[in-house]
Every structure is written in structure tokens, then in C-alpha cells.
Amino acid sequence: MRAPEVDSEVFVAAMExxxxxxxxxxxxxxxxxxxxxxxxxxxxxxxxAEKTITFESFVVVNAKVTYDLVMAxxxxxxxxxxxxxxLDGVGSRFLDERYLIALRxxxxxxxxYRPFEGWxxxxxxxxxxxxxxxxxxxxxxxxxxxxxxxxxxxxGDACLDWHWRDTMYELRGPVVADLQRGFANNxxxxxxxxxxxxxYFPALKKEGNMKAQSVLGAPxxxxxxxxxxxxxxxxxxxxxxxxxxxxxxxxxxxxxxMIRARKRGxxxxxxxxxxxxxxxxxxxxSKSHWPELxxxxxxxxxxxxxxxxxKLIVVDDKLSIIGSGNFDDRTFFINDELNVNVLCxxxxxxxxxxxxxxxxxxxxxxxxxxxxxxxxxPKYWGGKLVEPQL
Length: 390
Fold this sequence. Notes:
Structural class: alpha/beta
Largest sheet: 15 strands, mixed
Low-confidence stretches: none
InterPro entries: PLD-like_dom, PLipase_D/transphosphatidylase
Protein name: Phosphatidylserine/phosphatidylglycerophosphate/ cardiolipin synthase family protein
Domain PLD phosphodiesterase: 127-154, 304-331
Pfam families: PLDc_2 (PF13091)
CATH architecture: 2-Layer Sandwich
């Protein structure tokens, strides 16, 4: 059965149930395109911290932007700011130990999430659950989330072939408390400590007119919240769906939902990474689903200049889905993630403009582009075998 329109009260209630998250009124969310915009803004927020900083990320490796981040946290911690950091034990495994020494020396509380070491080698399924969230919250009042990690490839403006095209978002208003709860969810897991009190959760006033919902991806605790959100949004579409995702391996339910949407006359455009993707097996697994989607009239493009790493869905120019979650079963059923759903036509229009700028630098794919070369066949079939893990 088709879902109600995305701006209806029935849809809002249904999304709360599926996402297991409440909508918050009165938010302001700013779009920060590429590292040239989001790294300076995040650094400025850290430098202005007065009470607390919470930071959680998947990939943080040796880089100029990482040095700036660590030194800023070091200075604020030395000045008495409470700083808590969670880095994924696999995604950030190559970070030089000297960065961690600098953080700990200043009093920063640091935890590595499920590192592949010691006794963890004996429980690979435990370590298969990765922390893919991207959260920065300063003084409980300003938050950042999106797709980017910390490495040189994320810096700049996606104008060189080794750059990564990505987006982060700065959030102010009541929804920031839910970002903080997202961080606190994993802090309790790794430290056994609840973050609470006014320093972390101050009273938040309205900062704008955006309705937003922070959706916690914690599959073992809450089941599939992110995939359910995508499915409900796609089934509610009446006019258009824009999808811009780095890792696009839709399961059967989502493919069927997109095909149903096309039968209703919904226009669907999808931008994906080209051959410069960091995990070619994911691209090949994605291609295995292109013929079915293309046959339904869905347009698929590949971003041309460099690696595309953003995560964006826009439905009917009203609902936007942003955050860390990819379009794959690993996101829905394995990893820890955090997305933000935004119900605001003005914000959606901004996301569409960003999408169309990327579309102008993308190439329309044809059915023959989905066929793997003979050299790609081993990875193609290997990807199909492990698709739920991609």
C-alpha cells in the first residue's frame, strides 16, 4: 500500500514509528559542500568550545586536517573543556599513535570502537559491526553530521581526481540534543558511562523553522531504522526522487519500491561514483541491479571528476535524508549510523541545487555500461556472494 504524502501528519507519524525517533521543530541546518567549507567551520566550532566536545568518526588518518583537529581538541582540553572522542577501530586503524598521545596527554577521553586486536581476533562477528557515524557536538548546542571523515582526500573542493566529493551539515536547534544522544549511545557502550547534565544537554531554543528528525542506526538495539526510513520515503513519493550515494546496493524491497514509484510516474535520478570508487567490488555489485532499475525508467549517472562519497535522498522536493548512512544492507543491519531526516521545502530546494550541480558533472549510464568486463567477473560474482556485507 502506498504511503501518505511526505508532508502529511500521517507520514510524519509513520516515520516516527519506523525510524524510532521524534521530529523536532525549530531547527536551522546549513549545507557545507566539500572540505573547503566544512573543515574550517568544524574547526571554528571546536576552538569556540566552552564546556564540552563530543566527536565520533569512522575514518580519521594522518592528514593536515587531522593535525588541526587534534591540536584544537588538545588546546581546548588543556583549558578545561571536557572532550570525548570515539574513532572506529578499523576505519581509523592507520592513525599515528602520536595523535592519540597528544589527545590523552591533554586529558581527552578517547576510545577505539571494536578494534581488531587481542581477544577480538577470536570474535570476528563482533568486529564486523563498525561505527560509521559522523558526529561532532560542541557545548550541546551546535552539531555536525554528514558523510566525511578526516583525510587529505576530503579537503579542497572536489576539483582534483584524488579528491572526494562530500557534504557535511551544521545543525542548530532542538535536534542537536538527539545528535548528542547518538554519540552518548556508543559512549555508554565503550566506556560504560552515561553522558548527562546541562554541559551536554543544555536547554535548546528554536534556531529556525526546519522540522528535523535524528535517526539512530543501531541495528542490534533497534532493528532496521534507516532502511525502513528509506522505504517509507520512496513509497510516499508522488513526483520525484533524487538519490546521490557513494555505496548503492539496494536490497530487493528497496528496488521494488523504486520500481513501484516509477509505475506511479515518479521521476528518479541517481548519481553514483565512477571507476574511482575506493571499493570497486561495491560498484560491481551495484551494477548487477542497474538493468532492472533502468528497465523501469530510472536514470543512473556516474560522477565524473573524482570519488563521490555523499549520502543524500530528496523526495518530492520536501523531504531530505542526510547523514552517514549508505544505501546498502551493511548500513541497515550491521553498522552503527546516524541520519537526519529534514522536512522543509527550502532545505530540499537547496539539496536539489547541489544535486543538479553534481549532475552537470556526471555521465548518464546505459544498460551496456552495467555489464562487467571479463577481468571484472571474479569481483562481480564475489560481490554478489557477499552483497549483504558490502
